[in-house]
Design a protein that fits this description.
Length: 287
């Protein structure tokens, strides 16, 4: 069926499996809010909300950037510029995903529902920031970083300032690896007039900015452990993050970006999952 084919291509286009970047941090926020596992009902709707929100954001990004992707040799084979999907179908997918996200928020609590349009605005409007600011990497980071705070609200129906430390940590984590990812478009961004840290500072300096962002991330994770009174297991999680970040940065050099996809996709997925496992273990073993 054409619709099923288009849906399959859309899921490939948005790389829905990479929801793993933000989902473990969202689950960390939910478990910190609950002091353990949230209720099964809360957990289900949090996962639905996360997947729907990310699907809407990624599809909207592809829709908004279709002309840019078509001009960039690296991205010209993506579904929209290659003609595998129509803009109308992708726009419909964004609308349906956004509706599912709002539905999920409504099943959690009133505050989650009220803030759902704000969250969607952050997620969708990020796509235009590369046109106006070199700091779009941190905007993307914030778009994913709101996940743990949103999950806290989903469980508690209110916001505790302490969870903002995790939001800030994810913001700098994602900002850092997005700076790395943007290095491969250094020449194209200059030609197209797009904004990025590599374009303005050059690739060697951009790599140092990415490292600085990740140092800030680690400091924020340490602060998070302190304010929540977490123990040695969670501390081991931060140590694991540090070691994995060091390995990630060792894969990327100014004159060799060939291992960038491994650094970007594989290592960051491992980082988020491992941190969640250690935080969850710390919380559950304290009970």
């Amino acid at each position: 069926m054409p619709v099923l084919h288009d849906l399959r291509v859309t899921l490939e286009m948005i790389k829905w499996e990479h929801s793993i970047f933000a989902l473990p941090f969202a689950l960390c926020g939910a478990m910190l809010a609950a002091g353990g596992f949230p209720s099964p009902r809360q957990l289900v709707w949090i996962v639905v909300a996360m997947i729907a929100a990310r699907s809407a954001a990624m599809a909207f990004n592809r829709w908004a950037d279709a002309s840019i992707d078509a001009a960039n040799p690296r991205t010209s084979t993506r579904a929209l510029p290659a003609g595998h999907l129509t803009p109308a179908f992708v726009a419909t997918f964004v609308a349906v995903s956004s509706a599912i996200f709002i539905l999920a928020a409504s099943q959690l609590n009133r505050l989650a529902l009220l803030l759902s349009p704000v969250a969607l605005a952050v997620l969708l409007l990020y796509s235009y920031t590369k046109r106006v600011t070199r700091w779009s990497h941190l905007v993307l980071g914030f778009a994913l970083g709101i996940a743990p705070s949103a999950a806290w609200i989903a469980v508690r129906g209110s916001l505790d300032p302490r969870i903002l430390l995790l939001t800030a940590a994810v913001t700098f984590w994602v900002g850092g690896f997005d700076v790395l990812y943007a290095c491969q478009d250094f020449d194209f961004d200059r030609q197209a007039g797009l904004h990025s840290i590599p374009r303005y500072l050059g690739i060697p300096s951009a790599l140092w900015i990415a490292r600085a962002f990740h140092v800030v991330m680690v400091g924020l994770l340490v602060a998070l452990l302190i304010v929540f009174g977490m123990g040695k297991i969670a501390a081991c999680g931060v140590l694991a993050v540090i070691l994995l970040l060091l390995y990630e940065h060792s894969l990327v050099r100014p004159n060799d970006l060939s291992k960038l996809n491994a650094a970007f996709f594989t290592m960051n997925g491992v980082i988020s999952v491992l941190f969640f496992v250690f935080v969850a273990g710390d919380l559950l073993l304290r009970k």
